[in-house]
Design goal:
The complex is a heterodimer of chains A (187) and B (200).
Chain A lengths: L3 H14 L24 H7 L16 E7 L4 H19 L7 E8 L3 H11 L5 E4 L3 H5 L7 E8 L3 E9 L5 H11 L4
Chain B lengths: L1 H17 L38 E3 L5 E3 L8 E6 L8 H10 L1 H6 L2 E7 L3 H9 L8 E3 L6 H6 L11 E5 L5 E6 L8 H13 L2
The chains are: A alpha/beta (187), B alpha/beta (200).
Chain lengths: 187, 200
Amino acid sequence: MRGPLFMLIVASVLLVSMPVHAEPVGAGDPLPAISLTGPEVEAQRTYLGLKKDGPFNPADISAELVIVEIFSMYCPHCQREAPKVNQLYQLLLDTPRLGNRVKLIGIGVGNSPMEVDFFRDTYEVRFPLFPDGDFAIHKALGEPRTPYFMGIKLGPGGKADVVYAKLGEFADPARFVDEVMAKAGMK
Amino acid sequence: MKSKGWLLIAALFGITAAAPALGESLAFKEQIYDVGHLKPVDSVLKVAEGELAPDFTLPSVGGEKITLSGYRGSKHVMLSFVPAAWTPVCSDQWPGYTIARPLFEQNDAVILGITVDNVPTLFAWTRQMGDIWFPVLSDFWPHGQVADRYGVLRGDGTAERALIFIDKSGKIRKIHVGDINERPKLDLIVAALKEMNAAP
């Protein structure tokens, strides 16, 4: 019984059960379980509405919709896009109807905390950025190229669904927000 | 028969492990040749920390020839050997060093990027990276001669992913030959630059 066929079956079951997406998560997928640590800045914890210290899941963020930028300090497109993503953050802050409903975070894949800090300082990024130094989040998300934007709609009971996903830069922050909100069924 | 079965399992997991997990940038979408998971290190160093760095002159993408000893007395140098153009990891390594330029300037250091590719290939590849502020050198002919002199030429003719920190006196202060499949962290570079610049 314990011949090559049996071993192949065992291996196949193990491979299928590994929590790695073959394709990057996209619209219609539930958000895989990912854990974020930080931010250490109190103002950013307040922005995210985190109720307790320690690691958290994006579903813990106080918002209806969370826009996530998957970036890397080493990615030239992410570097070029940084001022526009800052504009997006400012737009969210400045628009009363968005208020606390839509929040923005960034995850630096393969980046150490220091590399994320360096990216933050270089481009004067004020929204929360999180390191993913060991690519654990990147793997859980199906290894998207960067920059990759996701819109995650949050619901009761920790429900978090990806309603929007886009590889590459966006043209206009206002139109981008409208597009993501429309996919989330928000006005 | 049994061992063949386990070999099969090992191969399956090997394929999974070889899947790209490098956070590659869209800048090189569909232009990067997937080399798979490579043997982490495939060479033996021929230089050591504390020794005088072997001098060399190589052609650069900018057109001029660059001599290592030309920096002696004026700048610390970080040699950044990368395996080959148009391959994973390498293609996102130097763009990170582009925005890290202030860190090098603060520590009175420059980068010399080196691969074993020829100049036209390096020209096309680095143009995809945006503005690379440091010289990119071609160790193409005699093939990999400089990489070999330092002991970072791999068996397949590519170079290791290696960083060699050389102070203003021309002495090697730190050597990092990392896993070719992984990008060295900026943390390591900053620590080495600071240590080198702080040394008497």
